[in-house]
Write a structure and sequence with these properties.
Elements (H helix, E strand, L loop, with lengths): L11 E5 L3 E7 L2 E9 L3 H14 L5 E8 L5 E5 L9 H10 L5 E8 L6 H18 L3 E5 L1 E8 L4 H10 L3 E7 L3 E8 L3 H12 L3
Antiparallel strand pairs: 1-7, 2-3, 3-6, 4-5, 4-6, 8-10, 9-10
Helix pairs in contact: 2-3, 4-5
Length: about 200
């Protein structure tokens, strides 16, 4: 079995498996939190539009998202709440749990009593935290694809490397040569390329 330490590579990330929800109430205001796994900004913004339409009668629909294994694509929105009291606390919970590929939306139904800046921060932070607490968190790996070709008699040698390194065969076609496409954890791509090259160019 091929085994190598990959901690040096930034190819692991944490996200949620499926939609989850959380709630928080304070002075008759209700905060409904919804966390969704997303992989693109477009997916995230489509959910924002969906929730704004669904909860048209709510006072605010605030949100924050984080996209990408590098966790460098993010945005938050207070949706009319005082600046920094809603979107930022939601994003803070995403960050503190080291999550990505996620959007959390918090719907507020106003209860008639103002909560103040600190009260709002606590409310949005707690609602978001509840949604995360109720989620199934998964650790996933960033994968890279590698396409190559080789002569058919080298199939056994190539497949031994693929199996040893736990790469996934995405496709293979047979013509004059074998055309193969595999997927592997990104941090192991260079090693895979080296071993495949040795297998198909032994001399």
């Amino acid at each position: 079995m091929f085994n190598v330490q990959c901690s040096m590579f930034n190819d692991l990330y944490k996200t949620i498996a499926t939609k989850s929800e959380g709630t928080y109430s304070e002075l008759r205001s209700k905060f409904l939190a919804f966390a969704h796994p997303v992989s693109t900004v477009e997916e995230a913004m489509a959910l924002v539009e969906q929730y704004q339409k669904k909860y048209y009668d709510a006072r605010h629909v605030c949100w924050a998202y984080m996209i990408g294994a590098d966790r460098e694509t993010f945005r938050s929105n207070d949706n009319g709440e005082p600046s920094g009291t809603a979107g930022k606390p939601i994003l803070g919970q995403i960050n503190s749990n080291e999550l990505t590929n996620i959007i959390i939306l918090v719907v507020r139904y106003f209860g008639g009593v103002k909560l103040g800046t600190s009260g709002l921060i606590v409310a949005y932070r707690t609602a978001a935290a509840e949604a995360i607490a109720n989620a199934t968190i998964e650790e996933r790996q960033v994968e890279a694809e590698y396409d190559f070709s080789f002569e058919y008699p080298l199939m056994n040698a190539v497949m031994k490397v693929v199996r040893d390194m736990e790469a996934r065969v995405l496709s293979q076609t047979y013509d004059m040569d074998v055309q193969m496409s595999v997927s592997i954890r990104q941090g192991l791509l260079d090693e895979l390329k080296t071993r495949i090259k040795k297998a198909i160019e032994p001399f």
